[in-house]
Write a structure and sequence with these properties.
heterodimer, A: mainly alpha, MetI-like fold, 0% strand, B: alpha/beta, 9 helices, binds adenosine-5'-diphosphate, binds magnesium ion, nucleotide-binding (chain B), membrane (chain B)
Chain lengths: 226, 274
């Protein structure tokens, strides 16, 4: 017969796995929301102020925003994690736990997504934007009626990449007491050599990544009418 | 008081309008300060070699290109003195079509035509009515729910014309509207543009490098070379005055068929390009 006893450890730890998954989802929810709202707006602003676009006259903003994005993105995540730790304590009152880990995660996600969005919007042909300008569209109308609609497949894919990347970043956050699935894998699997727990968490992460990727690509394909 | 003879305001008046770009070799390119008067109801052509400044001159009319100098007056309104919101409102009364159509790919044909009305805040009833009327005008009522990628080049340009006509503009700017199309499709599109002018009374400013296109449609033509309008020519029934630079170009570069019928014929074969 098939021996299920090797999974006893996993079954015993199910509540803990559930809790860790909840923590991961919380970290993801916070950093993805921040990335979409703040990073998305920043990416759009950088795109609109780039050369040849509607708000190109705000060149100083463009240069500054580009520089900030590059600086934040050049920090290795683990260093960012430690560096903003005092700042996290200031904002959420503690420097450990998923809420505290969400601060550096959000920071990294915002600037990562800003760059992704800016580059995705470049796929919208200049002529299409210009046609909207010729029809009297305002910059805000161009964003909502042209850029976000014409680039929607690319934007979905950008969000997919962001989600997958930050699922693994959130596992790193576990190292400094962020909690979550990655933390569980490290505590039980790595430090205590409980291989079954390690395998279970990795399987869980693989399933999550596959689902996100599948869903993202399916949606992007469905929305693309080009 | 003496009665002043009243004529309709000119559709376009450019007064000393110029735009300079610095080319890669440091040479100034663009359009030298130019005057242009286009009467209401006229089809005015702009012809010249590639890089002569035709598109720039056209784009100066709706201020897609900001002039370095001069004034742009469209139907009596001075666009160069307008605030951005005023300019956007004025642009809603000026249609524009392009060589590569520039349709929104992720919107249906009907939504493309509705686009200028939506951004102008038109009511749903008006949008429905205008979309229907404009699609029927260009003969594409049956394609309302199609996606642009499902259409041929000629059909895409018809959709672009319907979209430009939706807000009932008094002026249509056309930048090489047939240059991406085959001769037969070109001919049928020129019919549509002729209809836009005759039946709807829309003034058209048309850029083309193809003499046959200019001849088929235009009442007058501005000839451009190296950023300057070097000549203005009346084309009575497509006839090019024999003493003009344009006539000289035609003999030099071919395609000198003088009658409109022959000009249309020339389109079917190889369109005459200057
Ligand atoms: N935005 C721009 N920046 C720099 N140079 C430009 C720009 N637009 C046009 N030009 C230059 O101005 C000249 C005229 O261009 P254009 O009006 O497009 O010519 P045409 O439509 O007759 O082919 C060309 O030399 C072109 O390279
Ligand atoms: Mg051109």
């Amino acid at each position: 017969m098939f021996d299920l006893s090797i999974f006893d450890g996993v079954i015993e730890l199910l509540p803990e796995i559930g809790k860790a998954t909840g923590e991961t989802l919380l970290m993801m929810a916070i950093c993805l929301t921040a990335a979409v709202l703040i990073g998305g707006s920043l990416g759009i602003a950088v795109f609109l102020t780039s050369r040849g676009q509607a708000l190109a006259r705000y060149r100083r903003f463009n240069l500054l925003a580009n520089a900030v994005i590059n600086v934040v993105r050049s920090f290795p995540f683990i260093i960012l994690l430690v560096a903003v730790s005092p700042f996290s304590r200031h904002i959420v009152g503690t420097s450990i736990g998923p809420l505290a880990a969400s601060v550096p995660l959000s920071l990294a996600a915002i600037f990562y997504f800003a760059r992704l969005i800016e580059q995705t919007l470049r796929d919208v042909p200049r002529g299409v934007i210009e046609a909207a300008e010729a029809m009297g569209a305002s910059p805000l109308q161009i964003v909502f009626h042209v850029l976000l609609v014409e680039a929607r497949s690319g934007l979905i894919l950008a969000f997919t990449v962001l989600t997958v990347s930050f699922l693994s970043y959130s596992a790193v956050a576990g190292v400094v007491g962020g909690g979550g699935i990655g933390d569980l894998a490290i505590r039980y699997g790595y430090y205590r050599f409980e291989t079954d727990i390690m395998v279970a968490t990795i399987v869980l992460l693989v399933v999550m990544v596959q689902s996100i990727q599948f869903l993202g690509q399916w949606l992007a394909r469905r929305l693309d009418k080009r | 008081m003496t009665a002043v003879p009243h004529s309709p305001p000119a559709a376009i008046q450019l007064r000393g309008v110029g735009k300079r770009f610095t080319g890669s070799d440091g040479e100034a390119v663009g359009v030298a300060p130019t005057d242009l008067d286009v009467a209401a109801g006229e089809i005015h052509g702009i012809i010249g070699f590639s890089g002569a400044g035709k598109s720039t001159l056209l784009r100066l009319v709706n201020l897609l290109e900001r002039p370095d100098s001069g004034e742009v007056i469209v139907h009596g309104e001075n666009l160069t003195r307008m605030s951005p919101p005023q300019l956007r409102a004025a642009r809603q009364r000026i249609g524009m079509i392009f060589q590569h159509f520039n349709l929104l790919h992720n919107r249906t044909v009907a939504d493309n035509v509705a686009f200028p009305l939506r951004i102008a805040g038109a009511s749903p009833e008006r949008i429905r009515e205008r979309v229907q009327a404009c699609l029927s005008f260009v003969g594409l009522s049956d394609k309302a729910e199609a996606w642009p990628s499902q259409l041929s080049g000629g059909q895409k340009q018809r959709v672009a014309i319907a979209r430009a006509l939706a807000p009932e503009p008094h002026l249509l700017l056309a930048d090489e509207p047939t240059s991406a199309l085959d001769p037969r499709t070109t001919l049928s599109l020129l019919e549509v543009l002729d209809d836009v002018n005759r039946r709807l009374g829309v003034t058209i400013l048309l850029v083309s490098h193809e003499m046959a296109v200019i001849r088929r449609l235009c009442h007058r033509v501005s000839v451009m070379e190296a950023g300057e309008v070097i000549e203005r020519v009346e084309l009575a029934n497509g006839q090019v005055p024999p003493d003009s630079r344009l006539a000289q170009w035609l003999t030099e570069f071919g395609g000198a068929s003088p009658t409109p019928a022959q000009a249309a014929g020339a389109l079917e074969k190889e369109s005459a390009s200057v």
